Amino acid sequence: MEVVICPERSKATALTARLMADRIAADPGIVLGLATGRTMEEVYARVVEAGVDFSACTTFNLDEYVGLPPDDPRSYAAYMRKHLFDHVTIDPAHTHLPDGMSDDLKAAALIYERTIADAGGIDLQLLGIGVSGHIGFNEPLSALRSRTRDKILTPTTREQNAGMFGGDATAVPKRALTMGVGTILDSRELVLLACGTAKAQVVARAVEGPLTSRISASAIQLHRSCKVILDEEAAAALQDRDYYDFVCRNEEKWDPYRRYL
Ligand code: GLP
Q1: Which of 180, 212, 246, 260 could be cross-linked to 146 through a Cys-Cys bond (beta carbons 3.0 to 4.6 Å apart)?
Q2: What mean pLDDT comes out for the span 131-155?
Q3: pLDDT of residue 251
Q4: For residue range 162-188, what is the model confidence (pLDDT) as tens digits?
Q5: CA of 36 to the centre of ligand 1 (A)
Q6: Which letter, b or e, does each residue of 61-82 get, where b requires 16 or more Cβ atoms within 10 Å of its Cβ?
Q7: Best residue among 134, 165, 183 to mutate for probing ligand 1, ranked by most atoms within 8 Å of CB
Q8: Is 248 in the pocket of ligand 1 (CB under 6 A)?
Q9: DSSP character string of 113-140
């Protein structure tokens, strides 16, 4: 794992957008794993601004609420259209989200896994982190080898995501269909982005804490190629910060990205 700490939120989101753009430029047919949430909005805005060409890309989103149709503005399908898909050249047939409207969620989950496998697996998976420690919607005690399935959301998560539901946590669906922790770990590269004070404790637990299903995001410690991009606020509770900065200063591969650091 590499931890990259940027002086401010705008630089952390710009760096994430730039890494994504660079991966697409290097491999236009890349299979992307996409995330939602407020943090990612800025990333997508920058990718759109940069005019990145998604025409040969395939995308798979991490998760979708159960019971919200894709045309519901609060669905993640709508989020993706609003923040990314409507503003870039991408074939809608190559964009995928789990089918939270299926009356057989187990079957929908299997189909999602199969579709990812048929596409050759995910090359680059973007991740945010929830205050419950989730990646995707893998709430505490999600098996570290779990695959796509439906999960009941924690009250904390429903609280955190209430913004899209008029501030009413009880209006947030109780369930979501989400890639599993194992599905996420199968991606060839992970980039986790977290910003802001509210994420500081959970980031420290994910990055430096014990590997535990209580904090699904700690599973990133198992991945061979994982970057964690933070702003100062989200990095505030890390204990080995000096070392992460030292690595970053000395790794030549970060040279093209110095202006974000
Ligand atoms: C939702 C998504 C997660 C994402 C999280 C972060 O819960 N299911 O994949 O990590 O939001 O949210 P935010 O960026 O709004 O803090």
Answers
A1: 180
A2: 97
A3: 96
A4: 999 999 999 999 999 999 999 999 999
A5: 6
A6: bbbbbbebeeeeebbbbbbbbe
A7: 134
A8: no
A9: HHHHHHTT--SEEEE---TTS-STT--T
Atom of ligand 1 nearest to the CA of 35: 9
Res 32: pLDDT: 98
The strand pair at 175-178 and 149-152 is best described as: antiparallel
Query: What ranges do the domains of the chain cover?
Result: 2-260
At 217-249, the pLDDT tens digits run: 999 999 999 999 999 999 999 999 999 999 999
Q: What is the spatial order of strands in the sheet that 63-65 belongs to?
A: 63-65, 175-178, 149-152
Query: Is domain 2-260 classified as CATH 3.40.50.1360?
Result: yes
Distance 88 CA to ligand 1 centre (A): 22
Q: At what angle do helices 76-83 and 38-49 cross, to 10 degrees?
A: 30
β-strands 124-127, 58-61 pairing: unpaired
Cβ of 142 below 6 Å from ligand 1 = no
Are 206 and 199 in contact, with CB atoms under 8 Å apart?
no
176 CA closest ligand 1 atom index: 8
Q: What is the mean pLDDT of the chain?
A: 98
Average pLDDT rounded to a whole number, residues 141-146: 98
18: Cα separation from own chain's centroid: 15
Kindly state if the Cβ of 97 falls inside 6 Å of ligand 1.
no
139 CB near ligand 1 (under 6 Å): no
Q: Looking at the chain, how many residues does it have?
A: 261
Q: 64 has which bridge partners?
A: 177
Question: 38 C-alpha to center of ligand 1: Å?
Answer: 7
